[in-house]
Amino acid sequence: MAFKKDPQVFGAKITEVAFGADGASAVFGGGNTLPLYSFDAETRHRPLVGIEFSDKGPDRSLPGLAEFYEGADSLTDVAARACMAQGADFVSLVLESADPNGDDIPSEDAAALAKEAAKAAAGSGKPIVIQGTGNVDKDQELIPKIAEALQGMSALLLSAKEENYKGIAVAAVTAYGQKIGAESSVDINLAKQLNVLIAQMGIQPADYVMNLGTAAAGYGFEYIASTIERVKLAALSQNDDALQMPVITPVALDAWSVKEAVVSEEDFPEWGPREERGVQMEISTAAAALAAGSDAVILRHPASVKTVSELVTALV
Amino acid sequence: MALKGIDIFKLTPKTNCKDCGQPTCMAFAMKVAQGTVQIEQCPHMSPEALDALGEATAPPMKSFKVGAGGEEYALGGETVLFRHEKTFVSKPLFAVSTSPDEIDATIIGVCKIDYERISERMCVELVYIEYAGDKVAFAEAAKKAAAANRTLVLATSDADAAKEALAVAAEGKPILNGANPSNFEAFAALATEHGVALGVTADDLDSLHDTVQAIEKAGVKDILIDVGAASIKDAFAKAVQVRRAALKSGDRSLGYPSIVNVAALAPGDAHMQTALASVFILKYGSVIVMDGMSYAQALPLYGLRQNIFTDPQKPMTVEVGVYPINGADQNSICALTVDFALTYFIISGEIERSGVPVNLLIPDAGGYSVLTAWAAGKLSAGSIAKFIKEADIESKIQNRNLLIPGKVAVLKGELEENLPDWNIVVAPNEAVSLVKFLKELEC
User: Fold this and answer.
1) Of A240, B18, B153, B349, which residue is most buried, by most CB within 10 angstroms?
2) Environment class of residue A191 by beta-carbon count within 10 Å: exposed (0-12), middle (13-18) or buried (19+)?
3) What pTM does this model have?
4) Domain for residue A33, yes or no?
5) For residue A266, is it within any domain?
6) Domains of chain B, earliest start first
7) A255-296: per-residue pLDDT in tens?
8) CA distances (Å), origin A218, targets A131, A230, A258, B31, B395
9) Mutate which of B208, B307, B310 to test chain A, going by most A C-beta atoms within 10 A?
10) What SS3 state is found at A256?
C-alpha cells in the first residue's frame, strides 16, 4: 500500500500586507497553507526577517555586534549598516530613548530620529518597521508624530494596543498612509477583538498586521506558540477574516533580556561567552515562532538574522 | 479509527457483573471509547472480541520506551498535531552525533550539560554513534557510551556491524538506526532478536511506507522513522507528513516517532542546528541529533522543549521558598510574587537586571498569575503572613522591607496589620518598570 498524499490547502488565505516605499518594500502574508508547509502548496511570500537597532546605538560590549557596526556612529550610519546584514528583508528602529522608564525624550525628537533612520533605510533599499516604547500613553502621542514625520514612506509602526488604537489607527493609517501593528497579549480572543475594533475605524485589512505577543524560549513560549497556531488555524480552516492578518513577532527584546543572555561569563563561566548565548536564544526563539506560524520575526544580531533567513530559504 | 461506545458495548458480555469496576457494561464501554479505561479491565471479553477491539482502539501513534534502568525514555504516543488540542506527551530526546574515533571527547562534552530547570533534568539523553567502517571500533564505542550512562543510537546500514555492536550493547535497549528498503530483512531480524527499537529510512514516503509495513510484518514492534538528510526541506516535509498521516488520516504504518538528524542537515553549523532543532521541537521531531551541545544551545533548546511539552491544563510552578538574587543576604530587602513559573522567571529576570540584591519570596499561590491567584483567594494577606511564619523568614532575614506586586496593592493595609514589624512597599504594576523602581528604591 502506497503512502496516501493528503495536501492541506485551505480555501481561505492570510491577507497580503505590503510596507515600505518604491524600491524599498516588502510583502508578507498571502499563504493558504499552514506556515512553512511548502510541500502542501507553493508558498506565496516567504516569512520576513528583520534586523533591529536602537536609537541609542548597538551594544558595543558584544564583540561581534561591535565589529558589525564598527565606524557606524550616527543613527544614519547604524541604519545603513543594518541594511547590509545578510538575509535582512527589512530593518527596525527601536525608539529606546523615548521610553518613559528611561530617557523619556520628547515625542517630537523621537519622531525626528525615526525619520533619520527611515531615510537611511530607504536609501539602502530596505523598508522600515518602527518600534515604539510599549508604553500606551507615550505611544499614543509618539506614533502619530512618527506617522507624520514619515509621510509617504508607508512604514510599519508598532504597536497599537487596545488602550490606544483609536488615535494611532486614525493618525497613522488614515491620515498618513502608514501600516500599523495591532498588539495584544497572547490571547486569540483579545487579538480578534482588537482587529475588529481597528476594522471598525475603517482601516482596511491590507493596512495592519498582528503582534500576538512575545516571549523567549523557555519563558512561557508555549503560550506564544499555541496562540499563533490557533490564530492560523482559525484564519485558514474557519476562514475567520478578523484573524487573517499576517503575524509579526519581535523576538529580540525578550531574547536578549532573559538571564541566559544577560549574565556575564565571569559569573557563569561554564555557559561561555554572552554574545553566543544571546544569538542562540534569539535563533531558537525566532525559529520556533516561525514554526508556529509567524509571518515575520525581528532579531538584533546579524549572525541570528543570517541563520534564520537561511532557515526560511531552506524551508520554503 | 475510534470506535463509538455503542460498538464496544455490543462486544461486551452484557452481564453487568461489575468485575471491571464499572456499574454496567454500557458504562464500561463508554469509558473505553473515551480512552479513560483499558479494554483489558474486563475479564470476560472473548479473544475474538479483544482482537477486534485491540485493532480498533489502538492509539494512532505507537508509544514505547528506549534505554534501560535510570536512563529509560518514552517516545511516541502523541494524539494531537497541536498542543492546544490536548497535550504533547513524549518530549523529544536530544542526541549528540559522534564516530568511534571521537567517542571519548563526545562523552566528556555530553556529560558537561546536565542541570535542572523547573524540576526537570536537562541533559543529552542519547549518544548517536555512526559506523565508520571498523566493526570492532564501533562495538567498542558503544561499550564506552553505555558505560557513561547514556542511551545509544547505533547508526549503521551494515547489518554485520550492527550485530557486533548489539552483542555488547543490546542490554541498554539502544535504538538501532539503519534499516532501509534494501537491508530491512536483516535489520528486522536483528531488532527482534535483541528486542531493540529500529530506525528506518527511505528516499520517499511511498517506499518508506512500504518498508515500515514490511518491518512490521517481520515482527518488529518498536519502530522510528528517520526523516533522512536529503535536504532541510525534505526532512521537514517528511516529519510533518508522517505525523499528519498518522494522527489525521489514521495511517498506522506511519504512527511512529521520528529521528531528525540536524547534524547531517547542517553539518558544522551550530546556529542552523539550533534553528532546526527549534523547528522540530514544535513540529514532530522525536529524536533530534545534533553535532554537539553547548550551553549556549542547551539553554534555549531545553527551555523551549520544556515549554512546548507542558500540559496546557497544568501551569508550571516553581518551588515555594526564598530565592536570593544578586547575592542577597539577610540584610537585603524582600520581594514577593507567586509560584507560577512564568511570573517567577519574569520577575527574577528583572531583579537580576537591576543588579539590586533582593530576597525573592515565593509562597504557594496555586500556580496562578498574581491577579488570578488573588481572585482565587490563593494570594491574600493571610496566606502571605502564614508563609512568612512557616518558612521562618523572620529569623532568616533581618531586613523588614517587603515589596508586593502592584496588582495586589489592595493587600497593603491588611498585610501591615498581619505583619506589624514589616514595612510593606507596593512595587509597580508591570515587571518592565521593576528595574527602574528597584534602582531608585530607598529602603
Assistant:
1) B153
2) buried
3) 0.89
4) yes
5) yes
6) 5-57 (1.10.15.40), 63-308 (3.20.20.20), 321-440 (3.40.50.11600)
7) 999 989 988 999 899 999 999 999 999 999 999 999 999 999
8) 24, 20, 9, 36, 34
9) B307
10) coil
- The nearest alpha carbon in chain A to B284 belongs to A291
Domain presence at residue A77: yes
Q: Is A4 a member of any domain?
A: no
**Chain B residues lying within 8 Å of A277, measured CB to CB:** 295-296, 299
- Lowest model confidence (mean pLDDT) among A6-15, A49-58, B365-374: B365-374
Interface probe for B, chosen from A8, A99, A187, A221 (most Cβ of B below 10 Å), is: A221
Q: Are the Cβ atoms of B279 and A310 closer than 8 angstroms?
A: no
Q: What is the pLDDT of residue B313?
A: 75
User: How many separate domains does chain A show?
Assistant: 1
B184: its cell numbers: 530491512
Q: Kindly state the average pLDDT of the residues B391-411.
A: 94
Task: Give B307's contacts in chain A (Cβ within 8 Å).
Answer: 217-222, 225
Q: Nearest residue on chain B to A225, judged by CA atoms? A: B308
* Alpha helices for chain A (secondary structure H): 63-68, 75-83, 107-123, 136-149, 165-168, 188-200, 221-237, 252-255, 259-262, 274-292, 302-315
Tell me whether strands B321-325 and B114-117 are parallel, antiparallel or unpaired. Answer: unpaired
User: Hey, is A211 helix, strand or coil?
Assistant: strand
Contacts of B125 (CB under 8 A, 6+ apart): B67, B71, B73, B93, B94, B95, B150, B151
Provide the CATH number for the domain around residue A179. Answer: 3.20.20.20
A217-238, pLDDT tens digit by residue? 999 999 999 999 999 999 999 9
- Residue A5 is predicted with a pLDDT of 85
DSSP type of residue B325: E
**Chain segment B133-173, per-residue pLDDT in tens:** 999 999 999 999 988 889 999 999 999 999 999 999 999 99
pLDDT value of residue A200:
96
Query: Which residues form the domain of A255?
Result: 17-315
- Percent of chain B with pLDDT strictly greater than 90: 75
Q: Do B82 and A270 touch (CB under 8 A)?
A: no
Scan residues 104-123 of A and list those with Cβ closer than 8 Å to B.
none
Yes or no, beta carbons of B208 and A3 under 8 Å apart: yes
Predicted confidence at residue B412, as pLDDT, reads 95
Which residue out of B120, B260, B279 would a mutagenesis test of the A interface target, given it has the greatest number of A Cβ atoms within 10 Å?
B279
ipTM above 0.90, yes or no: yes
Contacts of A286 in chain B (CB under 8 A): 275
The answer to whether A38 contacts B342, with C-beta atoms less than 8 Å apart, is: no
Model confidence at B211: pLDDT above 50: yes
- Which residues in chain B touch residue A2, judged by CB atoms under 8 angstroms apart? 206, 209-210
